[in-house]
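Entry 14. Structure prediction run on the chain below.
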Amino acid sequence: MADGTVSGRNARGEWRPESTIAPAPINHWPPRPGAVLRWLVGFPGYLWPLNVFWFVVTLVTWTWLTPELTAMKSLEFWWIALLLGRNMALALLLFGGLHLYFFVFERQGEALRFTLKPLATDSGRFLFRHQVRDNMFRTLVSAVPVFTGYEVLTYWGFANGYLGLLDASMGPALFWSWFVVLLVLTPFVHSVHFYFTHRLLHVRPLYRTVHGLHHRNVEIGPWSGLAMHPVEHLIYFSTVGVQWLLALHPVNALFQIQLAIFNAATAHTGFEKLKLGERLAIDGGCHFHYLHHKYFECNYGGSLAALDKLFGTFHDGSTDAHAAMRQRLRALREADA
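Output returned:
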């Protein structure tokens, strides 16, 4: 995919990784148990380092930054405000920290950046005619209150016995086994939920009135991750509903919510990976989702659950995949004509 310069950038300043995107090994058929095991516990892999790190953040949040569950049995202003303030600080630290690292201090320079086009600073597409300010406003004023609302309902439901109903009928061994199973499945749940809700948001009426706002971000940065319409925030964070049905402990639900936050940030950096020194680089699925922002009608989910491959919307970054996408869209337009 690289052409034109020694750095691998083409004449438009675009860069692509040499390797194409591959679905996770759990999607191979026939199954390859060895490859799945290496992917599951290897470094880097499914668990290490990213998902384990995010779970540690969730544990810290639950243990030291969340009131006792018994205190949240009734909906009171003090603890709801505490959660809102904590989540506001989390968003500023995560999204703001990544933005500072990549775009203000430019600690990674141009390395692994998909395009050299700047984030918009004088565009009528955005509030305040400024992309980053628009994105920050939509994240802090809409996204943070929405996912805080889901978190409030979660704790209130668990505190009053409306959620986690199987808790009393289980022994400790079965309880904690199910707790761990749900933790391991959390990224997969997010991936499946994201694919189907994302496809829904690309249905024409919803795209025009709701999701099109997010796609004003063609060139993306970390704050673009949750720069959405409030209706889309409600849909996106409804992934926690799966944990409302299955989880026995509120930490499972909190991890589901926070993973949706973390993934939105890492998938919108505009860089393939976050480099930590010369040897370690963390991949947050950036190239996969970058292609969605560039071409709109591909890569609705992620490479974890290969639903895009199953439904014919997978783009692996290759010229063949691009030609197949153009052919698919041409056929759809002819069918609508």
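The chain has one domain: 52-290.
Filed with the rest of this week's runs.
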